[in-house]
Amino acid sequence: MTETERTTGGPLGRLVGKVKETAGSATGNDELAREGRLQQAQADAAEDATRDAAEARQKEAEAALEEQRAETEQERRRLEAEQAAARREEAAENDRRQAEAAAAERAARERSAAETQRHAGEAAANAAAQTGTTEAARLDAEAARAEREAAALDPEENQR
């Protein structure tokens, strides 16, 4: 085979190489037999290179897919963490609103109780004042009666 000759690759090149090897061996042409063996080896090498290139492309595709899966998983985890943080924030806000509402309700009850207690105190003070006024009137009436009785017993004393 000369340097300018191109050999056919693949299964056809292998077949042509085998024919050349067989023809060279049958005719005693060692150069043709050697050329046939070389063509077969070249066809085998081309098939190996094609297969290796396909395997390399497959491995690259698998690596790219795995990288994409890892990125997707990382993004999924980030989104889950973001959602969990949002849920915690919302729960904290709900707790705060509930605490404020409870505090406002408690303050309203305490104001109402204080107002009720103030009214009760005023009523008790009014009742005590009324009782004091009634007691004073009773004591005045009793003193006046006692003076009338004393005057009736000792009329001379009244004249002085």
Question: Main beta sheet: strand number and arrangement?
Answer: none
Radius of gyration: 60 Å
Number of domains: 1
Separation of the first and last Cα atoms: 176 Å
- Regions with pLDDT < 50 over 5+ consecutive residues? none
> What does the average pLDDT come to?
87
Task: Specify the overall morphology.
Answer: rod-shaped
Based on secondary structure, the structural category is: mainly alpha
- What is the N-to-C order of secondary-structure elements (H for helix, E for strand)? HHH
Quick recap:
By secondary structure, this protein is an all-alpha fold. The chain contains three helices and no strands. Helix 1 runs antiparallel to helix 2.
Structure in words:
The chain has 160 residues and is mostly helical. Helix 1 runs antiparallel to helix 2 (30-153). It has 3 helices and no strands. It has helices at 10-27, 30-153, 155-159.
Features:
160 residues, mainly alpha, 3 helices
Write the layout of secondary structure elements.
Blueprint: H1 10-27, H2 30-153, H3 155-159
Helix pairs in contact: 1-2
